[in-house]
From TrEMBL:
Keyword ATP-binding part of the UniProt annotation: no
Catalytic activity: Hydrolyzes free adenine bases from 7,8-dihydro-8-oxoguanine:adenine mismatched double-stranded DNA, leaving an apurinic site
UniProt source species: Hirschia litorea
Cofactor remark: Binds 1 [4Fe-4S] cluster.
Superkingdom of this protein's organism: Bacteria
Gene3D superfamilies: Helix-hairpin-Helix base-excision DNA repair enzymes (C-terminal), Hypothetical protein, domain 2, Nucleoside Triphosphate Pyrophosphohydrolase
Any Pfam family hit: HhH-GPD
Entry-linked InterPro entries: DNA_glycosylase (IPR011257), Endonuclease3_FeS-loop_motif (IPR003651), HhH-GPD_domain (IPR003265), HhH_base_excis_C (IPR023170), HhH_motif (IPR000445), MIG/MutY (IPR044298), MutY_C (IPR029119), NUDIX_hydrolase-like_dom_sf (IPR015797)
E.C. code: 3.2.2.31
The protein's name in its UniProt record: Adenine DNA glycosylase
Ranges of residues in domain HhH-GPD: 57-208
Length: 360
């Protein structure tokens, strides 16, 4: 266990933090939500709304994927009050493609909560009280928007610190718990006065230099401190947790077309893809072999192939069927959307996959 209170460790950490900031001053990425290090030194601080929005979008997705969504959201809704007043359907539609739709619902809820406040919360407790804001996001927003002395720890940061200090974990649940605690303690002890720049420098270092495979140690400001680099076994850190194979769930998508329109139904607010418009579907169940699922109405159903989609906890194998019917069936409720608009009507990616198979 690294003794972060020992004077020699403190001296090393403070010089490592300074070297990282010097590197960041020269190599900071330009991002649409970021205020660069020079501007920050001149007293310009980022709009916390933009920092918060970017952090929510960046959970589980990459910067290049999130950036156009960020631009779109901030053009449509430049502040929390305007986002709070938006229609939920509009927010969900613009979010479609970013995945994890519960996050979009929480985003909208959070904007409403922010609109009730006099100012954006600038303490970790205040940030944690917002809907959809967990410890990582609170730390990221707190550091980046307000220079609170805290470091957000995500997978990238974990990897960098794990290599820097050769804290590897043994792959077991308890080993990881202990190591994560130690990693958090180390990164926390590294945080300098410019905590917002430090947090962003760690993000840049983790995503661009200390990459999971083939880290670019030759360009790394921490090469002289890094124990894994010294040992020459950077890729052994962090130890890989054993992953269980994802269970497979099966189901059927029923694309009903009538008079040039396609029937979509809104999913219940709670649960997976809550509140989203989707094609009709059977339940998704874990099943060995085939499944015998009835069709929702009598029609000439054509099999169109299988849409596959990876969710966090399972992989969906969704058999897609389409039926063209003359009259809209009274037995089925939902929204009828024109065929040329349906793909872009706010349907999440999994629904788009089924629609494309059926209609294109
Ligand atoms: S020296 Fe290499 S392994 Fe160590 S932190 Fe830098 S990039 Fe990562």
């Amino acid at each position: 266990m690294v003794n972060v209170k020992s004077p020699s460790v403190k001296t090393q950490f403070s010089s490592a933090a300074q070297d990282l900031l010097d590197w960041y001053d020269k190599h900071a990425r330009q991002l649409p939500w970021r205020i660069g290090p020079q501007a920050r030194k001149n007293g310009v601080m980022p709009d916390p709304y933009r920092v918060w929005l970017s952090e929510i979008m960046l959970q589980q997705t990459t910067v290049p994927h999130a950036a156009p969504y960020f631009e779109k959201f901030t053009t449509l809704w430049p502040n929390a009050n305007e986002l709070a007043e938006a229609e939920n359907d509009d927010v969900m539609r613009e979010w479609a493609g970013l995945g994890y739709y519960a996050r979009a619902r929480n985003l909208h809820k959070c904007a409403k909560a922010l609109a009730e406040l006099e100012r954006f919360p600038d303490t970790i407790e205040g940030l944690l009280a917002l809907p959809g804001v967990g410890p990582y996001t609170a730390a990221a927003v707190g550091a980046i928007a307000f220079d609170l002395p805290i470091a957000p720890v995500d997978g990238n940061v974990e990897r960098v610190i794990s290599r820097l200090m050769t804290i590897g974990g043994d792959g077991s649940a308890t080993g990881w718990a202990a190591d994560k605690k130690e990693i958090t303690q180390c990164v926390q002890a590294l945080v300098p006065k410019r905590s917002g720049d430090f947090a962003q420098a760690m993000m840049d270092l983790g995503s661009g230099v200390c990459t999971p495979k083939s880290p670019n140690c030759g360009q790394c400001p921490w090469a002289k401190y890094c124990l894994a680099h010294r040992e020459g076994n950077m890729e052994s850190y962090p130890a890989k947790a054993k992953r269980k194979p994802q269970p497979i769930r099966k189901g059927r998508a029923f694309i009903v077309v009538s008079e040039g329109k396609v029937l979509l139904q809104r999913r219940p607010d709670k649960g997976l893809l809550g509140g989203m418009l989707m094609p009709l579907s059977s339940e998704w169940i874990e099943a060995e072999g085939g499944t015998d699922i009835p069709f929702p109405l009598e029609a000439e159903w054509q099999a169109k192939g299988q849409a596959r989609h990876v969710f966090t906890h399972f992989v969906l194998h969704w058999d897609v069927f389409v039926a063209h019917v003359d009259a809209r069936p009274n037995s089925l409720e939902g929204d009828w959307i024109a065929m040329d608009k349906v793909i872009d009507s706010g349907v999440p990616t999994v629904g788009k996959k089924a629609l494309k198979l059926a209609l294109l």
